[in-house]
Amino acid sequence: MNTLTVLLLLLGIHVAVTDRIRPAIRSLALQGILLGFLPLADSAGSSWRAATLCLATVGVKGIAIPAILTRATSRLGIGQEFESLISTKANILTTGALALAAFLACSRFGLSGSDELGAAAGLTLIFSGLLMMTTRVKAVSQVIGFVVLENGIFLFGAASGSEFTLPIELGIFLDLFVAVFLMGILMFKIHRTFTHMDVRKIHTLKD
Amino acid sequence: MGPPVFAFVIALTYLISGAAALWIRSPRLSRIIGFGGGAVASGMGLVAALVRLLQGEPLRIALPAPVPWVASELYVDGLSLFFLAVIFLVGFLSSVYAIGYMRKYDDEGRHREKTAPLLFNLLLLCMAAVVSAGDMLSFLLGWEGMSLTSYFLVVFEHERAESRRAGLIYLIATHIGTGGILLAFLLLVQSTGSFSFHAFAHVPLPDVGTQALAFGFALLGFGTKAGMFPFHIWLPHAHPAAPSPVSALMSGVMIKMGIYGIVRFLFYLLPAPPLAFGAVLAGLGLLSGIFGVLYAIAQHDLKRLLAFHSVENIGIILIGIGSASACEAAGFPGPSRLLLAGGLFHVLNHALFKCLLFMGAGAVLQATHTRNIERMGGLMRGMPLTGIAFLAGSLAISAVPPFNGFASEFAMYRGLWEGAAGGGTLAAILITAMAGLALIGGLAFICFVKVVGTVFLGTPRSAASSGARDPGHAMILPMAGAAFLCAALGVVPFLYRFRDSGNVTVFAALFVTIGILASVRAVSLRRNGKRVYETWGCGFSYATPRMQYTASSFADPILHVFRGVLRPRTKKEERLSGRFLLDLEYETHIGDLFENGLYLPLYRLFLRFAFFARRLHTGYIHLYLGYILGTIVLLLILFR
Amino acid sequence: MELALQIPAYLVLAPFLVGIIRKAKAFLSCRQGPPLRQTYIDLFKLFRRGIVRSRTASWVFDLSAPVILGTSVVLAGATPLFSRAVPLPMHFILYIYLMSLPRFFQTLAGLDTGSAFGGLGSSREATVAAMAEPALLLSLCGVGFLGKSQLLDGMLGGIPPGRIFLRPELILIAGTLFLVLLAENSRIPVDDPATHLELTMIHEAMVLDHSGIDLGMIQLAAALRLTVFSALITGLLFPGSLSLPPVLALPAAALKIALSGLVVGVVESGMARMRLSRIASFLMTATVLAVIALAVRFAR
Description:
- The structure holds 3 protein chains of 3 kinds.
- By secondary structure, chain B is mainly α.
- Helices cover 73% and strands 5% of the residues of chain B.
- Among the domains of chain B are: 548-589, no CATH class; 594-638, no CATH class.
- Chain B contains 25 helices and 5 strands.
- Chain C has helices spanning 2-28, 37-47, 59-78, 92-98, 100-112, 116-147, 152-158, 168-184, 203-206, 212-237, 246-270, 279-299, and one strand at residues 51-54.
- Chains in contact: A-B, A-C, B-C.
């Protein structure tokens, strides 16, 4: 359980600090799959509920979203690397600092044991997802950052003990899936219109 | 003979020998009597301080009041005695060194060299006064005396524009600092109604806001003197400009007066400061450490490089002191004591090895007539004694065991570890401090490998360096003494403290193992032969001095890593003739980010204000009288 | 009795580890590779040779090889290999800082010959070491928190045995230490121990002007340091291996070292050497990992 949480955390950090797109998507997929097994690992309630959740998570986050992203990147031919506004080293340091901040913040919630770890890991993922969305240039990284962020919320929610009911969880999945799908389409559109994927230049749309 | 009398005798020895140096006709005799008297007085002071330190209880001596209605006193407790010992120790070493070093000014026939002993002794005396002052006025008196005498020593070679500029920057910085100290003290005076430190310590400031304000002013004041980031900019200008014994004294002890002030303030005058104060101090220490050593790596001027290392070591000391205060506030007295002890021990250690390194730099400077390390090389041949002493100092400053720099950092690490074991916010602070300390250590290592490697090893890069020779006894002996103390203080503390860590056993095992291996190597070489030949030149003709790795190339990889914060400016010019490269000019320059980014704009702003203010000066006397009238009316309205 | 065996055991295992790594790399690239005894033979040969010494070198150069090997031997005396007790108990801070003593002399010796290669290697070595320092310190500090001791043998012996996969902070620290091992022992992806192009090397360029017994001492010291790191990491991952009965202890130690040799070999075969400017990012990642390990430790 703790090991699983830490693995999720490490994958999140890998996504945040790597500067190549493919490994990031691979880590994202692995993260989705592991996240799917999280409810199974500590299922105290009805097992069919956990199983459904697991199946849905693995299906959407572990397979569907990475597939869409891989397809998008290879179709668009946007190259191997994320481009970042800050250097790799600054990125690594910021991520480390954010992780430390997340852990410090969670030590104040008064959670115990593995719950605190889970909450802190979730918060770190939320932070690193946000960081990725703020500092990376290519539109695909915003999508990836968004998914990491969502995974973080999931982990944080699971740890802080707020139980969602199954329909709500599934609803969130649907939202997420649609969101990524739309973003994918949007990326195609952006690409076709501007022949680049540079988010920095979106401000030119302002009139 | 009681302590007051003894103190009086020491002070008198300083003054009389300094004054005598002014009147003696022969420059040689003047030098010997002036600095020799200083050395004698420092030696007496050192013995007295050590004896007193073993006896214990604090000492209060009433003084005849400098200002009629204010009582003035000396207050000498353990902290003061410790700093007194450091001052006198370095004072002794650098006075002896100065007897030899200042000879180079003898032949000038300008007689200015006769003022040096007096200023030098006055500086020592003022520093002693600062650490034994028991009230605000005598403290400030000593402080200003120290600033002024050191200013005159910085501009000693006043015919050089560089020295004058350095002196000006120093003067401005030190007065801003004094202003900060004055404001901090006035806040205390306001709440206690007394000028005595004793009263400050017993009446707490009303609220945290006032405490923070007082602490902020104290940090500005003492931090400027200590060369703490970001108030460090005067230091790399002033140290290289001053003669080497003065640099040794300034870098070894004068900047420690800032540390003394901070410790006095944080642990004595402010009752129970909150955790944030310690954290801020440790954070500033971390920044000083990292920036200090990074800028040091980028330097090619030997003395400027050492000056930046002072910034670094002040950072290390501040990390210790700040974390100690934070531990204290969080309720961990054990780690706090370890950290404070480590920080103060580092004060002594830094005083020793920095004094040693500046003395070594002075010897090198005198032999090669340059401060640029790119023009040195191979000095180990001509100056073996200086080389060994400098190597010992370098090992000490890089915190390589078994030298003293390691011993104090060891105490700090232990305190950090034990404090961090408790977890929580404190652990986050202490662990960051630990990581920072490790990084600073690694970077200092790079810098001193670079210095020793390019100055003392390899082949000479200029004619002056190939003819360099060791200086005379007066300069070698203090270096040897300091080097010996660096080694001894690295081992001795572990004999009666930290015995549980087994460090002494390890050191013994290390010496024995290395000794055995060295003898095995020697025996084997006697049997199998040793051939002396040219350095491997990759199959081409042998290497020339110009093909050696330079200091800049050595520093390049790490500067490349940190280029984001250092922002080097590079200039590259190629002159081509057809396809052939005739000439290539390449230049990189790393300026102080804060000097250029913060202080220069501030200065320009100030200048613009000054030009505006000048318009008020028209030269008409009627207008000035009008100003006076206006001021009086305004004052009457404001303060009824 | 066991304690007296530890340093000899390290000295025997060090060339063995280097041999295992070479074998593993050869196997993965479908070659046969040199036999395991080759590293012993090479060292033996070097120890019997005289030296060629540069004309520019000073006594620092002469002293470097004994200091380097001597310190490595002392470090080996402090690192638990097959039992919890060690002949030379050492504080972890001293342990880390003691590593800088041989490095100081090695980098100076590189500069002492006045050769550009030596300087190049020294400069890079110092840079890599400086960047690796925080990661190494923080991870050993974390081991100290886990084992509740500041002495190296105490902290490794103090880790309660149990299933390793349930303790993420232990795995994280071991991972960090492995990254530091690669960096500090000049392995791929930081340095390439096998290349013969001076410009790409770090460690090999630095020792280019050492020969004969000096070179032998330095090579043995390098192998020893690699073994010490391997023992550290495997001791962390298999705490049980330190409290085995004497008969099993030595074979277990050999097995541990062989295992880490295989892992290093596989990693080296599977990766390309990094650009020099990326090493900093690599080691910063290691530092961040160590920080996270510490955070995880305190979160539980």
